[in-house]
Amino acid sequence: MPNPTIADLARMFDHSLLQPHLTDADLVAGCLLARELAVASVCIKPYGVKLAAKLLAGTTVQASTVIGFPHGGHLTPVKVFEAERAMDDGATELDMVVNVGKILSGEWNFVAHDVAAVVTAAHARGAKVKVIFENAYLKDEHKRVLCQICGEVRADWVKTSTGYAETGATVEDLKLMRECSPAWVQVKAAGGVRTFEKLMEVRAIGVTRVGATATKAILDDAKAKLGAG
After folding, report:
1. Which 3 state secondary structure label does DSSP give 220?
2. Residue 95 designated active-site
3. Which of 3, 12, 70, 131 is buried most deeply by CB count within 10 Å?
4. Which one of the listed residues 128, 130, 143, 159 is annotated catalytic?
5. CA nearest 213: which of 197, 188, 198, 193?
6. Cβ atoms of 80 and 118 closer than 8 Å
């Protein structure tokens, strides 16, 4: 397989602007950086979606945000409302956190309805959904069932984590999620991809998106090692 271009790698990134300490000026700077790097999307705090959509207008960079973040415990109608409001503000991709407590309680019908409600609302308006598992709290059997559910409700991605739990993306989890998800569901790694080498490793597994704050540093390293093509 030939080496990817820098543009190929850039299109794997959801540049994350979710840290609690970020100011409005930080959000603007992050969106402008994402424009410069031509990443896939900016994943911004919900109140910043309208700002991101304005700053990214006319580019290929999508405005994305989080739903039920970071613990997934919001009521399903609240998650749907969040999704609708985010799309009203210009979001075209939504990263939704599952209800971890319901998973650990074995209430799979609740979990499936929760995910399906957001996916249905998003797809009705042409937006895409990444379903965040928060694998740090789950066993492999939970992850397998979640992948099955996400396939059945036609989610667009399964995603390892919020990036704010004890652990983030691991190679083992990414392999499991790719193996257990149908072909139409992509895999996103979040938390732990901080180097060019790790990016290439997860790409080889089949990961198509990566959530990162170190986007520029990783792509700069990629340019140094692959050339600027």
Report:
1. helix
2. yes
3. 131
4. 159
5. 193
6. yes
Query: What is the pTM (predicted TM-score) of this model?
Result: 0.96
CATH number at residue 213: 3.20.20.70
**pLDDT tens-digit readout, 143-164:** 999 999 999 999 999 999 998 8
159 is catalytic: yes
Q: Which residue has the tokens 């991709």?
A: 93
DSSP codes, 40-88: SEEEE-GGGHHHHHHHHTTSSPEEEEEESTTT--S-HHHHHHHHHHHHH
Q: Which of 94, 48, 42, 46 has its CA nearest to residue 216?
A: 42
pLDDT-based confidence at 228, cuts 50/70/90?
Answer: low
Active-site position among 95, 114, 156, 173: 95
> How many domains, in total, are found in the chain?
1
4 inside domain: no
CA dihedral 93, 86, 68, 146 (to 10 degrees): -30
Structure tokens of 10? 């850039």
